[in-house]
Design goal:
Blueprint lengths: L3 E3 L1 H4 L2 H5 L2 E5 L5 E5 L10 E5 L8 E12 L5 E3 L2 E3 L5 E4 L4 E7 L2 E8 L2 E9 L5 E10 L3 E13 L13 E4 L2 E4 L3 E4 L4 E11 L1 H5 L5 E14 L5 E8 L9 H19 L4 H11 L2 E2 L7 E2 L2 E2 L6 H13 L4 H12 L23 H16 L2 H20 L6 E2 L6 E2 L13 E2 L2 E2 L6 E2 H20 L5 H17 L10 E5 L10 E4 L8 H4 L9 H11 E2 L2 E3 L16 H7 L5 E2 L3 H10 L9 H5 L12 E2 L7 E2 L3 E2 H13 L2
Antiparallel strand pairs: 1-9, 2-3, 3-4, 4-5, 5-6, 5-13, 7-8, 9-10, 10-11, 11-12, 12-19, 13-18, 14-15, 15-16, 16-19, 17-18, 20-21, 22-35, 23-24, 25-26, 27-28, 28-29, 30-31, 31-32, 33-34
Helix pairs in contact: 4-5, 5-17, 6-7, 6-8, 6-17, 7-8, 8-9, 8-10, 9-10, 10-11, 15-17
Pfam families: GDE_C, GDE_N
Organism: Micromonospora orduensis
Protein name: Amylo-alpha-1,6-glucosidase
């Protein structure tokens, strides 16, 4: 894997250290997450974040373990870091960090206090909501180490205040149980019990959300580090509280072995590929021992079928996890209703609200069978896939239906945003894209051809599918090219002066990246043209991906920042999306264009934001600062896929 480490100039500078985040997933939907400098900058940061009934309904438990070292001289040095609502940062333990490393995906810190060097390692037990934090004396000593446990128990999307109920902490052997939900265990536990008021999260302030919360100082652990190699360790776990996990050092060793095995299984060709293979593993979860699923992004997303299916090839087929992928495709097929795939259960209910998620599912199944030769799965899912086509031809929810006049797929209903550009502001879609979106129809054509191939592999007649495919391809080639030199983004869209369903229609020629799928998919309707791709790249390509709208558009928003309304308003109006590098690179390769230099910026990004991973989004204007989730499934998956494809 690539070498990710930072010395004192990064670790000791709060701006640099706090803007680089690490993630350690537990494999069931929870995680530990924080920053290089140890400062919690998000409400989502914590050492034990516990998965709930759905992947997005997580609870924050153990927030931090603040180290304090008592030296032989009697001096006490605090190594933690907190920012307070007053603006004060205290303590400032990051100033004593001499090194941070990400080793086999696990974070490691080293503090130097004169001749004394103390190391911290952190890991989660794979398949269980359990974290281990190991402190080791590297040099100097003897010293006494105290670890102050700051706790809460709340929804990961909110805060908890001192004016509410006091957390219930029950003393048990070697530690305590907090709120009956999770257990802490370590040496020399001494209960405390007081509120730390006004802990500030600077990233939440930047996002226009409430940035402050109160934490409960539950108590502290204490141990002696007499000679180099001595350790003081703490474990915290949820779920089966009476079932003790292995020792902390064992948990670290187990997690390290597993991560190395993930990389070995992926058969990575170079360090970047190995890093992406391990990054991909973070998104593949098995919640509560149930079927395999995919977390769309950390720290706030749960499972979204569109993201899952776009990510499918990169997460599963490129990492040699086809058996898990097969299980996932079967479980998602069971959610089909009226020809549509369930989109997300993050809200606690199943929703059917995308036009493209189902079409990406057709693509994922086709790619699975093509890459693995698993025709048994193709045969098994074929009846369900046929219902998708039948429902789209007959018409299904939200006006999704094939236009019999041209064989293209139309969509749209009042108040809906059904494509991947689905942001809303105060409930109103920003980019409804009502009509016939370009990528939706590229996916429809691709899906028809993929299903026709699966039908023929099953020894059945696919003539009607090929007929529909031919009609749609002919219409696509006739209608989507625009006088501007690129493709229309939406055909038959309601004219701006008319409401949905009004008399006037127009073809939207805004320069957006959606058209890339018309050239990139396996059964793409168009052969790519180098001149057209260069026009697209001139307006949209950045070091971290493609803008969602060209800068010369009146609606362009160059900075993805501000409160929720401002951020959602700019989400698809110029914001850069790294996942779009996948279709861009595919289209360029089909056109015989060189893409050797395309990955330089995004590979450097692996050490700049979410360490070892790829962010959800970035600003449309230079320097293209990363935004959104620091760890995003389709960003990682598409980069992994197209890099592998070119090797």
């Amino acid at each position: 894997m690539i070498d990710i480490h930072f010395g004192p100039q990064v670790c000791g500078d709060l701006g640099s250290a706090a803007s680089r985040e690490w993630l350690v997933p537990d494999g069931v939907g929870g995680y530990a997450m924080g920053t290089v400098g140890g400062l919690r900058t998000r409400r989502y940061h914590g050492l034990l974040v516990v998965p709930g009934e759905t992947p997005a309904s997580r609870q924050v438990g153990l927030v931090s373990l603040d180290p304090a070292v008592t030296l032989p001289s009697g001096a006490r040095v605090r190594l933690g870091a907190h920012e307070w609502s007053s603006g004060v940062v205290d303590p400032r333990g990051f100033e004593l960090l001499e090194r941070f490393d990400l080793v086999d995906g696990l974070p490691r810190w080293r503090w130097r206090i004169g001749a004394v060097v103390i190391e911290r390692e952190l890991a989660m037990l794979p398949g269980r909501s359990c974290v281990a934090v190991v402190h080791r004396l590297i040099a100097g000593g003897p010293v006494r180490l105290e670890l102050s446990a700051a706790c809460t128990w709340r929804d990961a999307h909110g805060e908890r205040r001192a004016d509410g109920p006091t957390p219930q902490v029950e003393a048990v052997a070697d530690g305590a149980v907090v709120e009956g939900a999770y257990r802490l265990a370590g040496p020399g536990w001494a209960p405390e019990g007081q509120w730390w008021l006004g802990v500030h999260h600077r990233e939440e302030a930047h996002r226009g959300l409430h940035p402050d919360e109160d934490l409960w100082y539950a108590g502290r652990f204490t141990g002696e580090l007499e000679r180099p190699g001595d350790t003081v360790s703490v474990r915290a776990w949820a779920g089966r509280l009476d079932e003790e996990p292995p020792s902390a050092t064992e948990i670290v060793a187990t997690a390290r072995r597993r991560n190395r095995q993930v990389v070995a299984t992926a058969q990575s060709a170079d360090p970047v590929d190995a890093t992406l293979a391990l990054a991909a593993d973070a998104f593949v979860i098995r919640p509560g021992g149930a079927a395999v699923d995919v977390v769309a992004g950390y720290p706030w997303f749960g499972a979204w079928s569109r993201d899952t299916m776009i990510s499918y090839e990169g997460l599963f087929l490129c990492t040699n996890r086809a058996d898990e992928g097969r299980e996932l495709l079967r479980s998602y097929a069971a959610t089909l209703s009226e020809g549509m795939l369930a989109n997300t259960a993050d809200t606690g209910r199943v929703e059917y609200n995308t036009v493209d998620g189902t079409l990406w599912f057709l693509h994922a199944v086709s790619r699975h069978v093509t890459v693995t030769g698993d025709t048994d799965l193709g045969d098994e899912l074929l009846p369900a896939l046929r219902t998708v086509v039948d429902a789209h031809v007959a018409g299904t929810r939200y006006g999704i239906a094939v236009d019999p006049a041209d064989g293209l797929l139309a969509q749209g209903a009042p108040g809906t945003a059904l494509t991947w550009m689905d942001a809303r502001v105060y409930g109103v879609p920003v980019t409804p894209r009502t009509g016939k979106p370009v990528e939706v129809n590229a996916l429809w054509i691709n899906g028809l051809a993929g299903l026709a191939e699966l039908t023929e592999l099953a020894g059945q007649d696919a003539a009607e599918l090929w007929r529909r495919h031919g009609q749609a391809v002919a219409s696509f080639r006739d209608r989507f090219p625009a006088p501007t030199g690129w493709l229309h983004d939406v055909l038959d869209a309601p004219a701006p002066a008319y409401p949905l369903g009004g008399a006037a229609l127009h073809d939207d020629d805004a320069l957006r990246p959606n058209q890339l799928l018309a050239w990139s998919l396996p059964f793409a309707p168009l052969e790519p043209d180098e001149q057209t791709l260069r026009r697209v790249a001139a307006g949209l390509l950045t070091p971290l991906g493609l803008r969602s709208l060209a800068p010369d558009s009146p609606e362009f928003v160059g900075r993805h920042q501000g409160g929720p309304a401002e951020r959602d308003g700019g989400y698809h109006q110029g914001t850069v999306w790294p996942w779009l590098l996948g279709p861009y690179v595919d289209a360029c390769r089909r056109s015989k264009m060189s893409v050797d230099d395309v990955f330089i910026g995004i590979e450097a990004h692996l050490t700049e934001y979410g360490l070892g991973s790829v962010s959800e989004t970035a600003d449309g204007l230079a320097p293209h600062s990363a935004t959104g989730c620091p760890f995003q499934a389709w960003s990682v998956a598409e980069l992994l896929r197209v890099r592998r494809k070119g090797q």
